[in-house]
Design goal:
This protein is 24% helix and 31% strand. The protein is α/β, with parallel strands linked by helices. The protein has a single domain, classed as P-loop containing nucleotide triphosphate hydrolases (Rossmann fold, 3-Layer(aba) Sandwich). Strands 1-7-6-2-5-4-3 form a 7-stranded mixed beta sheet, covered by helices on one side.
Length: 142
């Protein structure tokens, strides 16, 4: 994949195929931020990527704020949706997570707290076209 990159998928299978291609691009130390409206497929996409990377069980971290996974990679999966103050993130060790160069960090709703996002990151915007069709826009910040 060359970035920036945009693609429209027609269904869940298309999203799974895209997740498979994207999983090949992932390296330890990456921060991947997903934004999009409620129901756009952020968790679904992350789940498919992580399953391809050997993580058997993936769930939304909406209430826990962060889930930690081990598979072929170590991954942290954050959900910023419920966070109101940046302090909430620092209270759970945000800086320690960011400093773990052996892990990949996925963040849903990163646009909720843009000031804590590292400069070097991948952002994926998922736009709902209709009930099954989604547009994915990938932007890489170096």
């Amino acid at each position: 994949m060359n970035f920036p990159f945009s693609i429209t998928v027609n269904d869940d299978k298309g999203t799974e195929d895209l997740a498979g291609n994207f999983a090949k691009e992932i390296k330890n130390g990456q921060v991947i931020v997903l934004n999009g409206n409620l129901g756009s497929g952020k968790t679904f996409f992350i789940k498919k990527v992580l399953q391809l990377l050997g993580v058997n069980y993936v769930s939304s971290p909406s209430f826990a704020i962060v889930n930690e996974y081990e598979g072929n990679i170590k991954a942290y999966h954050f959900d910023f949706f419920r966070l109101i103050k940046i302090e909430e993130l620092y209270d759970i060790g945000w800086q320690d997570y960011l400093n773990d160069i052996d892990a990949v960090i996925f963040i849903e709703w990163g646009d909720q707290l843009p000031n804590v996002l590292p400069g070097k990151r991948m952002e994926i915007l998922i736009t709902i076209i209709n009930e099954s069709k989604r547009k994915f826009d990938f932007i890489k910040y170096e």
